[in-house]
Write a structure and sequence with these properties.
The complex is a heterodimer of chains A (389) and B (413). Chain A is built from 16 helices and 2 strands. Helices cover 75% and strands 1% of the residues of chain A. Chain A is elongated. Chain A has a two-stranded antiparallel sheet. Chain B has 413 residues and is an alpha+beta fold. In chain B, strands 7, 8, 9, 10 and 11 form a 5-stranded antiparallel β-sheet that branches. Chain B has a 4-stranded antiparallel β-sheet with strand order 2-5-1-6. The radius of gyration of chain B is 23 Å and the shape is globular. The chains are: A mainly alpha (389), B alpha+beta (413).
């Protein structure tokens, strides 16, 4: 847990209009509203069909101009395509947000490229071909929207069951952990601390959506006003590793278990939205990239890598849940993400010794940098998964 | 505003502009041109200002890269990148993207975003409402772009230019590998530091997954009324190197021509040295010693035994190992484009971590700059007060024409 993250994600939620995981509250994204309004109007989609057919013809003319490398004709036809698109793009955005993004992705570069003095013919040809494909999809787009939302709803359901499993394990491991702490069994406590952390770090954004539960469970010493008010995992972490004693930690241990159980209860009644789920995947990677890679999370136990790997696993769980929707909408992104998850997992394997992740202070600067770069790359791809929403 | 300038404003921006401009501008085929010509400020009030300040814009597409013979701007950001990919196609895609980005940024435009608010914006935003401030972007390729440990990384080693090698070890070198070299260097200069940083930031953002930042160095320089700027030792720096602005000089000493692969024709070599200057030590040195070290008067910049800065150096009057004497002995025409830097504080000593970013452009580094570095490294009286801590040599390709991309001929010629 990190204050910066909290405030960052708060800003993110406000700016995007997502109410985080607090799905009981009203959903305010414009997309949500627009998709709701579109479902009722079948009239719109039949007119979009006509628009799509017309724009395909215009794009065909553009392709002819591209083929004959006639720059002035390219300019003229690209402008026609653009003006036409301007005339009905709002309807498309409302009814078929995914296809809208797809068409935009190629239409805009074509328009820009066409007005270069020496346009990149090859790129124009490629983009125009892709634009045609997107338009052809638009022409037949009737079920596409509902299909996607069905796929997304399925994704949320799958992810939610993942979350519940993690939550059950978290309660189980935290119980073992807190019992060991109360029994002053330091070795046992240290071992179960490592296990419990994994389940928390996999689903941390969920906890962050419940206001003060995350700070209570996961605050670090720098996050609290005074040490007297400090509770949670890291308070006990300090006792175990720095003081090598669990004396006087009973109260903190009891509170921690109570808080974790409260989290479990709240999570069970949570109805996640796809937006929050996808944003959560990104937040996990942000967490890893800000507080884990810098070794700030586990200042005493030095198990930052365990947390980092758990963040990665939690993020991957979202990726796997949305994979069907992703494959449907952006196969290339799905492939890239798959490759990047494999890459970072291969790197993480090299950071293990005797089956355990290296303590943070035993990693070399180069190892940290490599991991940081690979996290950035993963995060950079993950941000684009919002395209499916 | 020129015709090309239109292209940076995407329809998305136009719509934004029109929202700002209100009912005054009609969107549609006929209104298109009007909307397009409004500047990045997205404010109609600024329209005239933006169009009349043509001297704030230095075009990216040109025969030679800008940022070389361009009069020096006040701020520099250098970014050195190492490629993390082994795919030639990915490198080409990055260079294409960087090229387009350079064009957009130098025109003071911004990259548009989609309407999906769940995605991050394409432009980071801090240059909105700012003029391009003479922004220039200059690309250079290091020897490691072509070969690392003898391995031809992308099958282009036959395109490595004649003089592209790491600068050999020089006497007194104290180089930090982490502040030296790199596969690709991007030099960003502008009269506004925020504009310069914004540009580098977009390049970094666009490189994720293909390249990673190796080092970043920023610097500043100031002079008024056409006077030679002073370095952080308070001396006028580069008097002898004040390169003439005439084309003949550039042709003779800066722009590469024959005996180079085609992509380097009309290009040049960039020599980079990061030179730490021990300010505290210097500031406790007597004026006499300071002037003896340089061989010039501190106030006027005049060489010893002369009256004015521009007077020729009288070697008889120069102290034995003065900077001016040695530089004059080894003198070869180069184009200097250096900056001062301050990197904060040296934690070990508590001293200010500052110095000089030495940058020179020349067509033949082996003849024009390496001998000078050697002589100065061996004997320069300044060595007592400075230390060379970073080093790099980059081959800067010829300029880019519209529709092409930087370094295209490396891959496609």
């Amino acid at each position: 847990m990190k204050k910066a993250i909290l405030s960052l994600s708060t800003v993110f939620m406000i700016s995007t209009g997502i109410a985080g995981c607090q799905s009981n509250q009203t959903e305010t994204t414009s997309k949500q509203q627009s998709s709701a309004s579109s479902e009722s109007s079948t009239k719109t989609s039949s007119s979009i069909k006509k628009d799509a057919i017309r724009m395909q013809k215009e794009t065909k003319a553009l392709q002819t101009a591209i083929e004959s490398k006639d720059n002035s004709a390219i300019k003229k036809t690209a402008e026609t395509v653009n003006n036409d698109w301007l005339s009905f793009e709002n309807n498309v955005r409302d009814s078929f947000p995914l296809l809208y993004t797809e068409i935009e992705k190629y239409e805009q570069p074509i328009f820009m490229e066409a007005f270069n003095d020496k346009p990149d013919i090859e790129k124009l040809a490629q983009d125009a071909e892709k634009l045609q494909k997107a338009l052809a999809q638009l022409e037949k787009a009737k079920e596409s929207k509902s299909k996607t939302s069905a796929v997304l709803n399925e994704a949320v359901k799958n992810y939610q069951s993942y979350v519940n499993v993690q939550m059950d394990e978290l309660v189980k491991e935290t119980t073992t952990f807190t019992e060991a702490v109360k029994a002053q069994n330091i070795d046992q406590a240290k071992e179960s601390y490592k296990k419990a952390r994994v389940y928390y770090e996999r689903i941390e954004p969920i906890a962050e959506s419940f206001g003060d539960l995350d700070p209570k469970i996961d605050a670090r010493i720098a996050d609290v006003e005074s040490e007297a008010k400090w509770t949670g995992f890291h308070r006990i972490e300090k006792a175990l590793w720095k003081d090598n004693s669990a004396a006087g930690q009973e109260k903190v241990a009891n509170q921690l278990l109570a808080d974790v159980k409260e989290l479990q209860t709240k999570t069970k009644s949570l109805t996640l939205k796809p937006e929050a789920m996808v944003a959560g995947a990104q937040e996990l990677l942000n967490e890893a990239a800000i507080s884990k890679i810098t070794g700030e999370e586990e200042a005493y136990s030095r198990i930052d890598l365990i947390d980092l790997a758990a963040n990665e696993e939690g993020s991957k769980a979202v990726y796997q849940a949305v994979l069907p929707a992703l494959v449907e909408n952006n196969k290339k992104l799905a492939d890239q993400l798959d490759a990047q998850f494999n890459k970072i997992e291969a790197t993480l394997v090299t950071l293990k010794k005797d089956g355990e992740y290296l303590p943070y202070n035993e990693m070399s600067k180069d190892q940290i940098r490599q991991l940081s770069d690979e996290l950035s790359q993963l995060s950079n791809l993950m941000k684009d998964t919002a395209q499916i929403l | 505003m020129t015709e090309e300038k239109k292209n940076g404003y995407t329809r998305r921006e136009m719509l934004k502009v029109s929202a700002v401009a209100g009912a005054g501008i009609a969107i549609g085929a006929s209104g298109l041109g009007t909307v397009l010509s409004i500047g990045k400020t997205l404010s109609p009030a600024k329209e005239t200002a933006a169009t009349s300040k043509a001297d704030d814009t230095i075009p990216f597409y040109a025969k030679h890269q800008a940022g070389i013979i361009t009069p020096q701007q006040e701020f520099i950001y250098l970014g050195s990148f190492n490629l993390t990919t082994s795919s030639k196609d990915q490198v080409i895609a990055l260079l294409k993207d960087w090229t387009k980005l350079s064009d957009v940024l130098t025109r003071g435009a911004i990259r548009s975003s989609t309407d999906n608010k769940l995605l991050p914006p394409n432009d980071t935003g801090e240059a909105i409402d700012l003029s391009p401030a003479k922004l220039t972007v200059t690309f250079g390729f290091g020897s490691s772009f072509f070969k690392v440990n003898g391995v031809d990384r992308f099958g282009i080693s036959d395109k490595q230019p004649a003089f592209l090698k790491d600068i050999p070890h020089m006497p007194h070198d104290n180089l930090d590998k982490k502040a030296s070299g790199g596969d690709i260097c991007i030099q960003v200069c502008a009269d506004n530091e925020q504009v310069a940083f914004h540009a580098l930031r977009q390049f970094i953002k666009a490189s994720t997954g293909t390249a990673s930042v190796h080092w970043i160095q920023k610097g500043f320089i100031a002079s008024e009324g056409g006077k030679t700027p002073r370095n952080l030792f308070g001396f006028k720096d580069g008097t002898a190197n004040a390169a003439p602005t005439n084309e003949a000089f550039h042709k003779s000493y800066i722009w590469t021509k024959e005996n180079e692969p085609s992509w380097m024709n009309d290009g040049t070599y960039m020599c980079y040295r990061k030179i730490r200057m021990f300010l505290e030590v210097w500031d406790r040195t007597s004026l006499q010693d300071q002037e003896d070290t340089f061989g010039r008067k501190k106030d006027t910049g005049a060489p010893y035994g002369r009256k004015k800065e521009s007077d020729s150096v009288n070697m008889q009057k120069q102290p034995v190992n003065s900077h001016v004497r040695l530089a004059k002995q080894a003198a070869q025409p180069i184009l200097r484009r250096g900056y001062s830097y301050v990197d904060g504080m040296d934690e070990a000593t508590g001293n200010v971590d500052a110095g000089l970013i030495f940058i020179s452009f020349q067509k033949n580094p082996e003849k024009q700059i390496l001998p000078m570095l050697k002589v100065l490294g061996n004997q320069d009286a300044l060595n007592e007060y400075i230390s060379h801590i970073g080093s790099a040599m980059f081959a800067c390709p010829k300029g880019v024409s519209q529709g092409s991309y930087i370094g295209k001929d490396i891959f496609e010629a």
